[in-house]
Amino acid sequence: MPPVKKLIWQYDPRRHSRPFLRPLAAAIACAVFIGLILIMGILDLRRVNNTLVGFMENQGLNVVNVIQKLAQENLNLLVQVHKREGQHTFVPLTDEAFSPKNWLTNALVNLGRTIDNEWKANQLNDAYLKKIALDNGLWLVTVLDAKDQIVFRSSSLPAEFYAGDNSNEQQVVSNFFTQLGQMKKIGFIALRRKDGSGTIVIALDSDGLRYWSAKVSVEKALEKLGEGQGLSYIRITDRRGMILGGTGRVPEKWKDGGVYLFSQILAGKRKIVSRKVSSHDINLLDILTPLYLNGQVVGIARLGLELSGTDQILEENKRNIFVSTSLIVLIAFLFMWLLYHNQNKHLRRIVEMERRIEKAERLSALGQLAAGVAHEIRNPLNAISMASQRLKRECIPADGGKTEELQTLTGVIRDEIRRLNGIIEEFLAFSKSRRLEIQNYSITDLLQKVANLIQEEAAAKGITIQTKWSNYPAIIPMDIDKLQQAMLNFIKNAVESISGEGSVTISVKPEGNRRLGIKISDTGCGMTPSEVDQIFNPEYTTKERGLGLGLSLAHEIIRGHGGKIRVFSRQGSGTTFEILLPAVRYSPTDN
């Protein structure tokens, strides 16, 4: 039958080899946090942008509303004049009522002058007049010579001009103005040259009259509106796409969904449409909105507002968001780094604490084992000691010269047995250091007793023991034997650190509220900082013969009494042990 394997104890450091928060997890958390911050910043920028665009759209609507109001007033005056001319009763009109009619007349006169300039340049023909008529909503444009003969015309004359089947062109011309005046819903204006060499006739039907009435009303409204208000351009067209008025240089036409958008606006389904464009290195908000006259949509107003102020606000918001986001990202990285660092730091402390606990457990087990071994070794040592004494006393060599050699050998055996007994006593004292029997006792009496014990040994080495404390006893709760052993170890260690002559000073004085401070100072060799860090380690010693348990035992005893130990040392300048213990009462009286 194979032997059964049983695991008693195993230490596995790998369980703490990885940190609490992995670097990848920290990076993912930072990335998610930064992503959320960036998304919030982008959404905030969009919100600000939409707010500013909405504000500018309202500004554009206000401009169009002003134009509508002014154009409506002008159109109402034109209608008022037209109604007055169609009535037989007298209706008094103000001077302002005649202005729109003059605007309309002047606009047609200016058009006639443009045609006349082309006539003078010998560039006039029927095709040119046809284009003029189509572009300006004219019913008929005709050019007559000095004999009132038709030279050019935009289209064929209507049937009403002909008197019958046998009528010829000459008869039509002779009746031209008569027939034109008799036609209903047709108005005309005739412009004769100053030298009488010809006449330009421009005729309007009812649709043309409405177009030109709206055109002059809108143009005069734009003149009153003037410049400014961040308006780069404006163009107003009617339902057929003919221009009613405008100022500035309009950028390219709408391409994506332009026809659909125009139909939606003309149908009154969309109040406003806008887009951002760049024209001549200027950022603009291009706006489309319906134009209302007489309560109906008669056309579309397209205007461009400069975005310089808006862009400045957006850039400032971008900078602010970038700075705030950068700070938040920096704080996030710092926070994650601190979290990662602190977790690893605490983990290292936990691992170190576990190692110390395991080490303490091993030392405790070692102490118990040592106590048992020491107890078992005592009996053989006693037997060896008695045997060596008997050999020294009873076994005398026949050769008298070897008697001295026997005495030396038995002395060596006796000294080594004494040293082994001392080592065993240290082991036993260390293993029993945690069991204390507390009672109130004077610390000065205890220190005086320790000083008396080591006085003779110190004097033999040329070392002076000095004591400094009050006559009144300082009472503290203590285990007298163990605290005496601790103080003896401190003072003995101080004496052993002095190679030649020197002194050891022992003093007692109060430290704060109900605490006593005991200082043991020597003029010995001192210690380096690395040696100071290890002096209470049971495995550390600077002596050639010794286990290094003296100061470790003293340290355990002081901790058991609720005290603290401070060490001040400089190599070559001596060492001072300061021991703080809780006091029951202390009333110092200086010597």
Describe this protein with a few key phrases:
Heat Shock Protein 90, alpha+beta, single chain, 591 residues, five-stranded mixed β-sheet, disordered N terminus
Give a topology summary:
Layout: H1 23-85, H2 95-120, H3 126-136, E1 140-145, E2 150-153, H4 169-174, H5 176-182, E3 187-192, E4 198-204, H6 206-225, E5 231-238, E6 243-247, H7 258-266, E7 273-279, E8 282-293, E9 296-306, H8 308-394, H9 403-431, E10 439-442, H10 443-460, E11 463-468, E12 475-478, H11 480-496, E13 502-510, E14 515-522, H12 529-534, H13 550-560, E15 564-569, E16 575-582
Parallel strand pairs: 11-13
Antiparallel strand pairs: 1-2, 1-4, 3-4, 5-6, 5-9, 7-8, 8-9, 10-12, 13-14, 14-16, 15-16
Helix pairs in contact: 1-2, 1-6, 1-8, 2-6, 8-9, 10-11, 11-13
Can you describe what's shown?
A hairpin with a 4-residue loop joins β5 and β6. The protein starts with 22 loop residues before the first helix and ends in a 9-residue tail after the last strand. The protein is built from 13 helices and 16 strands. The radius of gyration is 59 Å and the shape is rod-shaped. By secondary structure, it is α+β, with helices and mostly antiparallel strands.
